[in-house]
Fold this protein.
Amino acid sequence: MPQNDGVRFTSSSLKIPLPPPQRSPFNFPFCSQALASQIVKTRNSFAQLVDSVKTRSEFKQFSFFRPGFSHFCNRFPVSTQSALIGRPSLLCSASLSLTRSDESTQLLIPKSELLCSASLALNRIADESTTQQQKGHSSAASLNPSPNQSRSDEERVLISEVLVRNKDGEALERKDLEMEALQALKASRANSALTVREVQEDVHRIIHSGYFSSCMPVAVDTRDGIRLVFQVEPNQEFQGLVCEGANVLPAKFLEDAFHDGHGKVINLRRLDEVISSTNGWYMERGFFGLVSAVEILSGGILRLQVSEAEVNNISIRFLDRKTGEPTTGKTKPETILRQLTTKKGQVYSMLQGKRDVETILTMGIMEDVSIIPQPAGDTGKVDMVMNVVERPSGGFSAGGGISSGITSGPLSGLVGSFAYSHRNVFGRNQKLNVSLERGQIDSIFRINYTDPWIEGDDKRTSRTIMVQNSRTPGTLVHDQLEGSSLTIGRVTAGIEFSQPIRPKWSGTSGLFFQYAGVRDEKGHPVIKDAYSSPLTASGKTHDEMLLAKFESVYTGSGDHGSSMLAVSMEQGLPVLPEWLSFNRVNVRARKGVEIGPASLLLSLSGGHVLGNFPPHEAFAIGGTNSVRGYEEGAVGSGRSYAVGSGEVSFPILGPVEGVIFADYGTDLGSGQTVLGDPAGARLKPGSGYGYGFGIRVDSPLGPLRLEYAFSDKHAKRFHFGVGHRN
């Protein structure tokens, strides 16, 4: 029979038991405390046995040869002597068996099958009345041990021989099991004087070896002395496994746990390890589940009963931010519930619940979230109550920043911003943002409306509708002569969809219309710069284009130092003859490596453009987020580019870090292929490198970066930035 043919799984809904009771003397956690107490009473049963043996008339005739044993046989009640004379001298027994639990066990493990029981009892070969009399005497002795019984525990009897036999008194068929039992003995040795307590402890040791379901110590009087025989009943050989109630536990887990035990005698110690391992599997994964019952069936079939707590109901409870009392929330409950990965009917997992809490917090509309699992009556299931505290939905904000496109002037690069945002429109977690950023030259007015999860979509697709009017300096590509400047104006409108593709991967697609033109410092439209290079692709004062955008992003842990890969493509769609047609591909990659307390960050980016595109859309190389040591765009601008960077950062003090860096960038010889060759007209080198050092300080706005760089042209520059490099 193949090893796993006897394994099958069934499912059923069971109650979760209360915490397990204390360990029994056998150290098997699945044995009940009530049954373990029966083992403790063995001491009194043995004491009663010794009292009975002392007065056996049959033993008195041997007192001349064994005076020590005669001393133990002088107080047996006369009323029972006749029943014992001529009978085999079976004195007592200890047994461990799998039975059905009594009411006390049911209190510990509700409605579960019996695990196991251990009982030590006094057995005599006598008629029913003698047996009943003995049971009554044993019970009385257990409850009120006499002084004679206590003394009997300490009195010793000389044992001439120690044997291990089966329950019929015959030699065991398997010698390896006999050796297991003999090796378990500690006190019981041939030619040794034993007390009742020592025999009792050896019985426990044999049972504790795990190979035997019962053990009966039998004292036999022979002419050579007292022979102590441990009559044992080995467990059945393992032939198959039935596991009930396991919905999330993989079958492979139990198959691996039992694969080497097929055809071997069931060892309760090994079984205890498997049960502990199974319970550990549930605990490591945060599941509410455990093995609640074990039973050995006829034919060597092992039955495991697993109890798993399923989610019965999920409810949302809104709490007041100030008082913590239940209140009415603005967010629709279904908006929260659909974010949860925990569903009704699933086995409740604490780890999954923790991830659900983090997911709700990332929505940005909750100040605090907690989950409280509660028992769902006596169904054995769990009701999940989620307490949430809402944040204020909307408000105004103001701030500032730095634009990298302006490199001169007393307030070079400073930008102020003002915005209104509502993060929970209609109580559906939809976002509305209206913002204005204004600097010396550049300005951006933007309206965004985002639905993070389109209703009715099961793939978590988000939708963003955007309208934007921007003015940015044209110095990145078309830096002018002294006293003049250019401004690139763009009006953009479009829609964008994003969704997670797989873990750590996300995808974005969108469609945008853009109207772009260039103006001089007086606001007049211009089509050529100071070097007579064209500023538009169409030759008119403005270019029009319909862009289809596709992007895929991989992020590791989400930290800046983790791995990242982003691939994007923009395709100009010439729906109308005057609309531009081009294709732009851009790739960015980043990899962080920890080196002791320091960290190494490597980054690489590159791109290429095919088709007819405006010169101001060429890839600009050089500056704070490109090659440090150069001004913005001073290395070159081309149809293609590649920029590589390496940084080593190390802690200095608290939030302050030091950094050493080196950058390199090139247009791959594509500068002259840009319409009008604006880089060549300005004698830009097309490639260059820079290196330097700096400090970074963590702040609520993000990392504040101050860097001092040297270029290969022997230029020196300070660079200041907010946030991580692109």
